[in-house]
Design a protein that fits this description.
- It is globular, with a radius of gyration of 21 Å.
- About 80% of the residues lie in helices and about 0% in strands.
- It has a single domain, classed as Amino acid/polyamine transporter I.
- The protein is built from 19 helices and no strands.
- Helix 5 runs antiparallel to helix 15, helix 8 crosses helix 9 and helix 9 packs parallel to helix 13.
- The structure holds 4-fluoro-L-phenylalanine.
- The site of 4-fluoro-L-phenylalanine has 16 residues, from helix 1, helix 2, helix 5, helix 11 and helix 15.
Length: about 450
C-alpha cells in the first residue's frame, strides 16, 4: 500500500489546519454574532469557550486522526474494532463534510463572482442605491451562480488532486500569510473612513446585559464551526501529522490564528458598514450587500481606491473559502483512498461530481427551486442547518466520548505527550483530559438542548 503522506514542519501543519479553520465562518458569522451578543463581553466568552471546550475537542480530533493514521471514516472503528457506534461516527464524518461542501462551494462561487465584478469596477460604477440589489438578482438567477460554484469547486478539487504536500500544504503555506496581510489592509481602509469608530464600538464595547445562556451556546457553536470541528476535517488532517509533532502546540496555534482572524475580520468589516450608515445584517447580506454598498458610497471621489479595496476584500473571501473547502474535500478523498483504494485524482473527480450536483440544487434553491422548503427553510438553509446545528454537534460529542471513555488513558497520554517526551507535563495533560472527558461532552449536550429549547 502507498505510504501515507504527512505534513512537513509544525508551521505547515498550523497553516493547513488554519486554512481549514479560517473561512466564511470568520468573515460573515463572527462579526455579526459578536455585535448582536454584547460585543467585547461576547468576545471574552468566545475566548473562554475556545480554550475550555473547542480546543480540547480539537486536540481530541487530532489525537484520533494521528493515532489511527487513517481517514475519518475508519479512524474510530480501527481503534475500537467491532463497535457499530464508531462505524456510525465514521459515516457521519464523511456525510457532514459532503453536505457542507455542497453549500459552502456555492458561497465560494458567489465570492468568485463578486471578485470578478470588483475587477470590472462594477461596485464603484454602480449607484449606491442599486448596489445591494446586485446580490439578489445574481443569486436568484439560474446559470451564473451554478457556473461560478462549479468553477470554484473545480479549483479546490484541482488543488486537492495534487496531494497533501504538493497541493494542500503548498497552497496554505502561501495563502494563510497572504490572508492576514489582506485583512490588515482592509482594516487600514475601513478604520480610516469617517464614522468608523461606531463600528469598532459595536464590535468591542462590552455589554454584559446581553449575555445569557444562549450567548454561551452561540459562542461554542460558532467556535466549533470556525475551527472545523465535528466534520472529519481535523481528524483527517490529524492523520497527516508527524508522530514527533506536539499536538497541543499545533492545536493551540491553529485556534489562536483562527481567533485572531475572526477579530481582524470584524475590525475590517464593521467600521466600514457603520461608516456607510447601514445596519449590520446577518449572513450573506453582510458581505455581499452591505460591504459592496460601502465601496460604492465611499469611493465616489476615489473610484480606484474603492475598486482596489473591493478586490482585496473579495480575494480574501475567495481564498479563505478555498482553503476551507479544500479540507472538506480532503476528508472524502482520504476516505475513498483508504477504504476503496480509489486514487486521489479519481477521488477528486467523484467528489466534484457529487458535491457539484448537490451544490447545483443549493444554488437553485434561491431561484427556480425556492418553493421547495421544509419548516420554512430552502434546500440551501436545510444543508446548513442540518450540518452546522445538529450533525456537527453529534459528531463532536461522539469524538470526545470516544477519546474520554473508549481509548485507554495511557494511549491518549502517549499520543498527546508523545510518550512523555513533549513539553506537556502531567498536570497539563490531566487538565486537557478532564476537559475532553467531562467538560466538552456535557457542554455539547447543553448546547444541543439550548438550540432546541430557545
Ligand atoms: N471553518 C470554516 C469556516 O469557519 O468557515 C468552515 C468549515 C471548514 C467547516 C471545514 C467545516 C470544515 F470541515
Amino acid at each position: 500500500m502507498e505510504k501515507r503522506e504527512i505534513f512537513g514542519s509544525r508551521l505547515t501543519v498550523i497553516f493547513a489546519m488554519a486554512g481549514s479553520a479560517i473561512g466564511l465562518g470568520n468573515i460573515w458569522r463572527f462579526p455579526f454574532i459578536v455585535g448582536e451578543h454584547g460585543g467585547a463581553a461576547f468576545v471574552l466568552i468566545y475566548i473562554l469557550a475556545t480554550l475550555l471546550i473547542s480546543l480540547p475537542v480539537f486536540i481530541a480530533e487530532v489525537t484520533v486522526g494521528r493515532r489511527s493514521r487513517t481517514s475519518s471514516y475508519g479512524a474510530m472503528s480501527s481503534l475500537a474494532p467491532g463497535k457499530g457506534l464508531w462505524k456510525f461516527a465514521g459515516v457521519l464524518s464523511i456525510a457532514i463534510p459532503l453536505i457542507i461542501d455542497s453549500y459552502y462551494s456555492v458561497i465560494g462561487g458567489w465570492s468568485l463572482d463578486f471578485l470578478l465584478k470588483s475587477c470590472a469596477m462594477e461596485f464603484v460604477k454602480t449607484d449606491p442605491g442599486n448596489v445591494t440589489s446586485i446580490f439578489g438578482s445574481f443569486i436568484t438567477s439560474t446559470w451564473s451562480p451554478i457556473i461560478m460554484h462549479l468553477v470554484f469547486l473545480a479549483a479546490c478539487a484541482f488543488i486537492v488532486a495534487n496531494g497533501v504536500k504538493a497541493g494542500i500544504e503548498k497552497f496554505s503555506k502561501f495563502t494563510i500569510p497572504v490572508l492576514f496581510v489582506l485583512i490588515v489592509l482592509m482594516i487600514v481602509y475601513s478604520v480610516s473612513l469617517p464614522g468608523a469608530t461606531e463600528g469598532v464600538r459595536y464590535l468591542l464595547k462590552p455589554d454584559f446585559s446581553e449575555i445569557n445562556a444562549r450567548s454561551f451556546a452561540y459562542a461554542v457553536g460558532q467556535s466549533f464551526y470556525s475551527l472545523s470541528l465535528g466534520m472529519g476535517a481535523i481528524i483527517t488532517y490529524g492523520s497527516y501529522v508527524k508522530k514527533e509533532e506536539n499536538i497541543v502546540a499545533t492545536s493551540a496555534g491553529t485556534a489562536v490564528s483562527d481567533l485572531m482572524f475572526a477579530i481582524l475580520a470584524g475590525l475590517a468589516i464593521m467600521p466600514a458598514v457603520f461608516a456607510a450608515g447601514i445596519e449590520p445584517g446577518a449572513g450573506p447580506g453582510l458581505i455581499f450587500q452591505s460591504v459592496p454598498f460601502v465601496f460604492s458610497s465611499m469611493s465616489a471621489s476615489h473610484p480606484a481606491i474603492g475598486a482596489a479595496v473591493s478586490i482585496i476584500f473579495f480575494l480574501t473571501i475567495v481564498v479563505a473559502a478555498m482553503t476551507s473547502c479544500i479540507s472538506l474535500l480532503e476528508v472524502g478523498v482520504s476516505f475513498l483512498k483508504d477504504r476503496y483504494g480509489v486514487n486521489r485524482k479519481k477521488g477528486c473527480i467523484m467528489l466534484f461530481l457529487l458535491c457539484g450536483a448537490a451544490g447545483v440544487l443549493c444554488s437553485l434553491s434561491f431561484g427556480p427551486l425556492k418553493d421547495i422548503t421544509l419548516w420554512g427553510m430552502n434546500i440551501f438553509d436545510i444543508f446548513d442547518w442540518l450540518s452546522s446545528n445538529i450533525l456537527l454537534l453529534v459528531m463532536a460529542f461522539l469524538t470526545v466520548v470516544f477519546v474520554g471513555f473508549v481509548l485507554k488513558k495511557e494511549d491518549v497520554w502517549d499520543e498527546i505527550t508523545n510518550s512523555g517526551t513533549k513539553k506537556v507535563n502531567a498536570r497539563m495533560f490531566d487538565v486537557i483530559y478532564f476537559l475532553i472527558k467531562w467538560v466538552a461532552p456535557v457542554a455539547i449536550v447543553i448546547i444541543f438542548i439550548t438550540n432546541f429549547i430557545f
